[in-house]
Write a structure and sequence with these properties.
Helices cover about 45% and strands about 15% of the residues. By secondary structure, it is an alpha/beta fold. The radius of gyration is 28 Å and the shape is globular.
């Protein structure tokens, strides 16, 4: 249902002058999908209130509700009797008098968006869905220039349903696919989209629990927070035999926190969380690195950090002044931020360029020392090139706990029998051995070594540079290179054999 609808919408938007790219597609479908999702959500809340003998007051005023402007339905009296819906007086068919063309575009741009934008100022607090509605429509613009194209898109989305768990799961999966394509469409793939198999693996290893606060200071499309929500929902249901009302409220309001600098990424992150079931995600539109580390207090800290900060960026001198270790490298500043904002005993899984392990500049050395001194860097996952489509860099994942010095670090090098790329992406099966070995290694004090994994004692590394770029000691040795004289002799022998074969062929002719 969703897949065909998305394809049809895609075809319509690519005909519209204002929506030519994958990025525009995500932006446009987001606000329309959100309003339809919100309408279904309010219907569910009305039904729940009715069953409990209560009343539910809708967030959106009648004239701006989906069934008023987007999909007004024909009355049954206007249809042949065989097409009546016995459960309602309305048919499933949209009234032919519904707004379209310039009237529809003028209403959306001139009335609907300004109305929804005001929610930000009138909401009781920032952790309400009303506030998020205001934020979304303060940042987004309607780029669909043709009101007839907009009418077609609205009609298609009206046919979608977000009432059951299966429906919501299917829709959110397809929306994730669009975000992935956006990240790969000639843009920075690491900025918008981290491969979901990698995120799922990081979440499994960090293993957050309901009641812990989870933070991503470079939230992007909120992939880490979405997967953490899915993980906690599924594990909580299994271990507890179902989530309690208190658990659900905790997951909705007191668990997931994020910050994002870029406007569109910020809105996509909020939308992604809402469409996955978190109604009012605690995501703030701000530059994380503009916060001075010395201002972070205990009340500001989090239990769990899951993040893939942007790599390759350069920060201005005034931003660097917020950090004790001065560097222009964006990812290094984020790592300092994460170490500082993590609670004592807190856990983290952070993606970073593999050059962090070996860079010889003063800032990198100081940062490695800081990490090893104040945190237990218990695991490093070394990823192959091509893990991040379009990013063009090799990365590692740092798993650490704050509050005690690193004594030993377990390394796992992901060696695959294929090259990763757009048509051959990373999958969960690729990482299954790592997850299994990591669980065994965490449960047993014994050092666990395989062909792909090994343990180092931090006391044995260079205490001046703290270089962590340790070569895998278990890699099978390559045969030694031959001497030049031996190579020349082999070449002469091959030439002799070739000459003999050519002679035999000549004799046959």
């Amino acid at each position: 249902m969703f897949e065909q609808a998305f394809k049809n919408i895609d075809d319509i938007l690519h005909k519209d002058a204002g929506c030519g790219s994958e990025l525009d597609y995500v932006e446009q479908t987001s606000w329309i999908l959100f309003l339809k999702y919100l309408d279904d959500l309010e219907k569910d809340k009305e039904t729940a209130a009715l069953l409990s003998g209560k009343t539910y007051e809708r967030i959106i005023e009648p004239q701006f509700q989906w069934t008023t402007w987007a999909a007004p339905k024909l009355r049954q009296a206007q249809l042949p009797k065989e097409k009546w819906n016995t459960s309602t007086k309305l048919s499933a068919k949209i009234d032919h008098n519904a707004m379209t063309g310039d009237d529809l575009v003028d209403f959306v741009n001139g009335e609907l968006f300004p109305y929804l934008k005001k929610f930000k100022g009138s909401a009781e607090s920032a952790d309400t869905i009303e506030y998020k509605i205001g934020e979304i429509f303060s940042e987004l613009k309607n780029r669909i220039q043709s009101g007839y194209n907009l009418r077609e898109v609205v009609n298609l989305i009206d046919e979608l349903r977000f009432r059951t768990h299966a429906e919501k799961h299917e829709m959110s999966h397809l929306y994730e696919g669009k975000i992935k394509n956006m990240g790969n469409a000639g843009r920075n793939g690491g900025e918008y989209y981290t491969p979901r198999p990698l995120i799922k693996t990081i979440v499994k290893v960090v293993a957050p629990k309901i009641g812990e606060t989870i933070y991503d200071g470079a939230v992007g499309s909120a992939g880490f927070l979405v997967e953490a929500f899915e993980y906690l929902t599924s594990t909580g249901s299994v271990t507890k035999g179902g989530l309690s009302t208190s658990d659900i409220e905790t997951l909705q309001k007191k668990t997931f926190y994020g910050k994002e600098k870029k406007s569109l990424a910020y809105i996509i992150g909020i939308m992604n969380m809402i469409l996955h079931g978190v109604e009012a995600p605690n995501i703030i539109h701000t530059n994380t690195l503009a916060e001075n580390l010395s201002d972070i207090q205990e009340k500001d800290r989090y239990d769990v950090i899951l993040a893939n900060p942007p790599f390759g960026g350069k920060e201005r001198a005034e931003v660097q002044q917020n950090f004790p270790i001065k560097t222009g490298e964006t990812a290094s500043l984020f790592l300092q931020h994460f170490i500082k904002i993590l609670k004592a005993g807190g856990k983290a899984g952070v993606v970073i360029k593999n050059t962090f392990l070996s860079n010889t500049d003063n800032a990198s050395i100081a940062l490695r020392k800081e990490l090893l001194t104040n945190c237990d860097l218990h695991t490093v996952l070394d990823l192959p090139g091509g893990t991040f489509t379009g990013a063009g860099v090799k990365t590692v994942v740092l798993f650490f706990e704050k509050g005690k010095k690193t004594q030993k670090t377990w390394f796992y090098q992901l060696n695959l029998d294929r090259n990763l790329g757009k048509t051959n992406p990373l999958n969960e099966k690729d990482l299954a051995e790592f997850v299994e070995l990591r669980l065994r290694q965490a449960q047993s004090p014994d050092e666990l070594e395989t062909e792909n994994s090994w343990t180092i004692n931090i006391a044995d590394i260079d205490q001046t540079t703290f270089d962590l770029s340790v070569k895998n000691p278990n890699t099978p040795e390559e045969p030694p290179l031959r001497e030049p004289k031996e190579i020349l002799e082999s070449m002469a022998e091959l030439d002799k054999q070739s000459a003999e074969i050519l002679n035999l062929i000549s004799e046959m002719l």
